[in-house]
Amino acid sequence: MTPPQDATAQPPKYPADVGASMMLPKQRASPAASLASLPFRRSNPSLSKLFESTTSASTSRPGSGTATPTAAALPGSVFSPAPRAGGTGTGTPSSLPPGVSDEHRTLIQRAFVPHIAVLADAQTEELVRGKGIEGGLLQLLRPFGEAVPGKVTVRDSIGASKSWDDFGVRFLAVDDAYPDLRVDTTAGPRTSTSSTRRTRRAGGDVAHIEELVDRHLQHSEFNHQDPVSDYLTQGNVAPQTETSSSPFHTLYLRRLLSGLPVVPHETFSHPVAGIIAISSRNPHPIEELRKLYNRQHDGDLRFPQWVENDFLRYYVLIHDEETGDIAKSNQTFDSMKRHFGLHCHLLRLKSHPTIPSDDDSVRVPTCDWMSASEELAEIQKRETADDITDPTPYLPDSDVSSLRTFIRELVTQSIIPNMERSVATWNEQILSRRRGLSGRFMSLSKRWTPFGTSRNSSSSSTASSNSNYDSLQGFYRPDAPEAIMRRLADYCFMLRDWKLALSTYDILRTDFQNDKAWRHYAGAAEMAALSALMAPTPLSSKSRSENIDAWIEAASYSYTDRQRSAAPYYALRTLVLSFELLRLRGASAADDAARWATRILETGLVGAVGHALITERISACYSIRSGIGAYKLGGRKRKAAFWAVLAAEHWWRLEKSLQAEKCLDSALRLYNVHVESQPGGKINARLSFENMQVFVDELRQQILSLRLSHQGYDAERDDEDGLQSPEVEEATETLDTSPRLHRKSLIGAAVPSIETGPLSPALERSDDKTDPRGEGFE
After folding, report:
1. What is the DSSP string of 322-364?
2. Of the ranges 51-65, 104-118, 710-724, 756-770, which is most confident?
3. Which residue has the higher pLDDT, 696 or 550?
4. CB 628 within 8 A of CB 85
5. What CA–CA distance (Å, rounded) separates 355 from 396?
6. What are the distances in angstroms from CA 443 to CA 430, 469, 470, 514?
7. Residue 314: beta bridge partners?
8. Residue 2 exposure: Cα atoms within 13 Å on the Cβ side
9. CA torsion angle for 186, 189, 190, 192 (degrees, to 10)?
10. Over 80: is that where the pLDDT of 13 sits?
């Protein structure tokens, strides 16, 4: 079995002046044979599809950067002068440091998006499942909603319009708000039977994220080229390029933000609209729509009581192109618009399944924002399946076009305008009052007026009588001013109006602190810091230290140390997003970014895999501070290199040799230690610290042994069998042993006489005289 060629392994690098010889263990089994016991089957193409997000970037050596240093700042031209390295201000997200990508800022923008509830009748679910989509209508819409086709124009609070080409929405069901319960949409109440519990679409589980990233790391570790040939030809190595982050850290961050749980203290996952869909096969469509609406509004399919249930409803009629009557469907659709308004859509789909060999078949896109639990369940399902073909369903091209048109019309004509109207209404009716003098007096009265409370009261012992916070259940009612202002701030954040979102979160932070609603207070402080860092305006060092650092500190403390409000997932989210956004602010914020990243390791919010990834990112934070002048004053290159060495050691302990080697190579580049080709051979520049050089050499030897053991080489088993491993040494070999090697020089010597011999072959015959006439010649 030949190893796949799409994952080229990087050959190990060794110091050129190493006196001791390298010990190459004997090969006990072929690399292909060692893969039989792995948890991943390399020949399974359906399983490889799930690892594309990390395989394409991690297995190719030039594109698999970890905490690599950024390029040195180039001198500015006359058209774009170089920024002042010693300035006190912080750069804007639009003016990134050289070599730093804003992929994580874009990732955060795409994570906090509007959520839409989906509810369909039995005929619609049957039609969609007949097309091969096991999850029904919800699963059919999810991949198409992650990226709305075309540009989406959004107006902010002052009326300025801006277009976005990466806007998206998420779809959820009512049972996503009850992760431990099952919702039977046909009839009957919610039950908690474990046998009927399905895979959770909601995220928020750090343990599952760690396990998922570890599975991707294992797949990357064992799906690369055999390094033996590279070991023998280690001098012919292509130069490695640097990237801003590891694909595994990007995967970790994406899964951290996927499937935001439906919780009381934030409304990002609360539905801003709901889709109620029926099929053209339904004999009573209008009555069925009313029935589904009543069940969702105040029936058995209602969201929790802290979720606002009076959101926009969008009615969809799904027409079967192959068995339905289009004239009848048009009549039904006109009746729907008369009864329910203009928020209706006629979606035309084919009912028969599509196979990949069809001419117009299109593969259904994979959900990029599925939760870690979903992806783990899908990996396990494909590993245990007997069929190795890709189980992803296919749709006709006409269905794909209809779905994309439906998503764009839903977002641009209904969702965005409705959110903009809600923001304008709440800003005028509620937020403007809070900014005025009367609002400030009300806030003071809530803080200093203890009237109406009793220490012996059986109700709330912490909140005053004029507070809307229910401390026993831990939430505000949806119609409370604080809950409406929180929805206003979250709507502004999702519409990317950072200025209004920041001012609203700042007001809410004070109100929640007065009410001692600590988890709500932590959420407001978290989003206030993120809003300030996401805004394109520059930040001074004073503003960053007095406001943003204080908000991050308050959020992380309230999420972890406050009684009855501990939420490690949200504390991790706060710190990870904060230090990634601070890193984009340039060299002046590098130390703060590294400090908050170190807080994650100190508080133990991540597991072993997350510890290694965060250690890499600490090195990346320090590496962007290159220093000033010729002596690089104020630089953090040595700190960045030290943290890269720590990351390499941690990856080695986790038996991830590829990631360990990348971190070690990054550390040596930061230390300016590399092998240079000279006319007389190869010269290795050693570290200034002898103990560190010994540690690095030992670590590299251990990483090499780990890599070879993953490829089927085992030195310990050779020693047990009494076999002596050969030594690979440099030796001089004589290529020509002929006597001509030691011949004397002819310069200055007398020219010897040259004997002229016979030139004709006839003269070389034997001495026997031959008669020419006997041979026919005369």
Report:
1. TTS-HHHHHHHHHHHHHHH-S-EEEEEE--S-B-TTSTTEEEP
2. 104-118
3. 550
4. yes
5. 9
6. 13, 14, 18, 8
7. 275
8. 4
9. -110
10. no
Distances (CA, A) of 574 to 297, 319, 695: 33, 45, 35
DSSP state of 713: B
Average pLDDT on 259-284 reads 93
Per-residue exposure over 237-252, b if at least 16 CB sit within 10 Å of its own CB, e if not: eeebebbbbbbbbbbb
Distances in whole angstroms, Cα of residue 163 to Cα of each of 150, 153, 160, 501: 10, 4, 10, 19
Average pLDDT over residues 546-562: 91
Task: Report the alpha-carbon distance of residue 658 to residue 654 in Å, rounded.
Answer: 11
CA 444 – CA 261 distance, rounded (Å): 33
Task: Give long-range contacts, CB 8 A cutoff, 24+ apart: 442-450.
Answer: 443/510, 443/511, 443/514, 446/511, 446/514, 446/515, 447/514
| Cα–Cα distance for residue pair 420/492, rounded to 1 Å | 9
Pick the closest to residue 273 from 315, 304, 305 (CA basis).
Answer: 315
DSSP class per residue in 674-691: -EEEETTEEEEPPPS-HH
Please state the rounded mean pLDDT for residues 622-636: 77
Q: Based on the number of CB atoms within 10 Å of its own CB, is 37 exposed (0-12), middle (13-18) or buried (19 or more)?
A: exposed
Task: Single out the residue of 531, 528, 534 nearest to residue 558, CA to CA.
Answer: 528
Q: Where are the alpha helices (DSSP H) in 243-325?
A: 247-256, 285-298
* Bridge-based pairing state of the strands 344-349 and 312-320: parallel
- Comparing 269-283, 581-595, 651-665, 721-735, the range with the smallest average pLDDT is 721-735
Write the CB contacts of 316 (distance below 8 Å, at least 6 apart in sequence).
275, 276, 277, 278, 344, 345, 346, 347, 406
Rounded Cα distance, 295 and 302, in Å: 7
H-type helices in 174-284, by residue range? 206-222, 228-232, 247-256
Mention every residue, 6+ apart, whose C-beta is less than 8 A from residue 509. Answer: 521, 524, 525, 528, 551, 554
83-92, 328-337, 577-586, 694-703: range with lowest mean pLDDT: 83-92
**Structure confidence at residue 500 (pLDDT):** 94
- The beta strand positions in 327-468, using DSSP E, are 344-349, 361-363, 394-396
pLDDT, tens digit, 9 for 90 and up, residues 393-432: 999 999 999 999 999 999 999 999 999 999 999 999 887 7
Contact yes or no for 348/379 (Cβ under 8 A):
no
Burial-class residue 567 by CB neighbours within 10 Å (0-12, 13-18, 19+): buried
As given in the structure block, the two tokens for residue 710 are 């993953």
d(CA 299, CA 545): 49
pLDDT recorded at residue 602: 94
Identity of the residue numbered 144: F
Residues 280/318, Cβ–Cβ less than 8 Å: yes
What is residue 199's predicted lDDT score, i.e. its pLDDT? 64
- Mapping DSSP to helix (H, G, I), strand (E, B) and coil, where does residue 282 land? coil
Band (326; pLDDT cuts 50, 70, 90): very high
Secondary structure class of 304 (helix, strand, coil): coil
Which residues are within 8 A (CB) of 295 and not within 5 positions of it... i.e. 6 or more apart?
119, 301, 302
For the chain, the first-to-last Cα distance in angstroms comes to: 74
- Give me the pLDDT at residue 237, please: 39
**Structure tokens given for 403:** 């779905």
Q: Please tell me the distance from the alpha carbon of residue 161 to that of residue 180, in angstroms, as a whole number.
A: 42
The residues that bridge with 681 in the sheet, in sequence order, are 678
pTM for this entry = 0.78
Q: Which residue has the tokens 């040195």?
A: 72
Average pLDDT on 229-249 reads 52
| Helix residue spans in 495-589 (DSSP H) | 498-514, 518-534, 541-543, 549-560, 568-583
pLDDT digits (tens, 9 = 90+) for 331-345: 999 999 999 989 999
Question: How far apart are the C-alpha atoms of 530 and 551, rounded to whole Å?
Answer: 9
